[in-house]
């Protein structure tokens, strides 16, 4: 059930599973861990954009879309969501619990990385 922490909407594993499965056109799910963590196990279809790259990618984000962020435990992704909210992006969500709570098949499918603002805009 969605709830908020520090003004950021939180989703749990079941809600995230539905988002990844249904892929709403206005929602982008992004993994903000480090490349080594992502390579060790990631959610199929969820691209990587390491947390430290988010500020330089700000021009690729759209205020018309919702962004759901994932990390290992939910802390880094919460910080990314808070950063974007401070920059005027209201539709930001955190996957509370992170990959530690994900039990639905890790490391299936190809790796996808967001490397430029243009890559992000295509999402």
Automatic annotation (TrEMBL):
Coiled coil region boundaries: none
InterPro entries documented for this protein: GlpE_sulfurtransferase, Rhodanese-like_dom, Rhodanese-like_dom_sf
Keywords: Transferase
SMART domains in UniProt: RHOD
Ranges of compositional bias, category Basic and acidic residues: 103-123
GO molecular function per UniProt: transferase activity
Region entry Disordered, spans: 100-123
Domain named Rhodanese: residues: 23-104
PANTHER family: FAD-DEPENDENT OXIDOREDUCTASE (PTHR43031), SULFURTRANSFERASE YTWF-RELATED (PTHR43031:SF17)
Protein name listed in UniProt: Sulfurtransferase
Native organism: Alteribacter lacisalsi
